[in-house]
Amino acid sequence: MPDYRFDTPQPVRLYAEIGRGEVRCRATDTTVATVTVRGPVADQVSVTYEGDEITVVAPRQRTGFFGGEPEVVLEVTLPTGSDAMVKTGSADIDLAGEYAACVLRSGSGQVDVEALTAPSQVETGSGDVTIHVCHAELRVKSGSGDVRVGHAEAGASVSTGSGDVRIETAHGPTAVKTGSGDLLVGDAHDDVSLATASGDLVITTARRGRVTMRSASGDVQVGVPQGLPVWTDISTVTGELVSTLAATGEPEEGADYLELRAKTVSG
User: Fold this and answer.
1) Could you tell me the sign of the dihedral formed by the alpha carbons of 248, 254, 256, 259, in that order?
2) Alpha-carbon gap, residue 100 to 86, rounded angstroms
3) Which terminus of the chain faces fewer neighbouring Cβ atoms within 10 Å, N or C?
4) What backbone phi and psi angles, to 5 degrees, belong to 106?
5) Above 50 in pLDDT, residue 182?
């Protein structure tokens, strides 16, 4: 089980590339970065530190009758605010602590990130994605995995083929689309665009800005704070339209208001 230690008085960049297994990173207040590699080919994994970048690359090889890469478990400790670029085949990615910019890609592994402070991207083929807190622009793309974002301070763009998407709090412009999944935004403080072919669309509370919602066969639901002026353009072909909004008149100059456009075929 090879162990590596590097003096890192400042945040660094991590580049890691493995096939199967798991990548576990922890960002903490430290001046020493550590890398631990476990697995049947641990001694063949390349670990280097040059400039301000730590590079970890596992060998690509096939073993067994049906083939397949050996599992590698990578455990890394980095200074808080470090960048991370991680690419895996089917390995899970788990980032605990606070990071700056991250680019994370996995074919079928799950991705879980505690906190991001710089623009970041996450892509998975079929793995679920969880981002607890993001203070900068976030882009997430998944083929069939579910996506959950706890707190999005800036703009967020999420797209999936068939997975569900849930964003608890959105303070920046938010755009979400999926082929057949349900989409939910809890507390929206800025513009929101939601689109799905057959899933339900829900905004628990839309506080201001422009909201656009489109679904072919799913239901659409929007919660509006009492007294907020709302301009609506809502239509459904075979579904039912229900509104409990009270007339409030035009908004005062400089006051918040909501512009709501929603369209569904059978929802």
Assistant:
1) positive
2) 14
3) N
4) -145, 140
5) yes
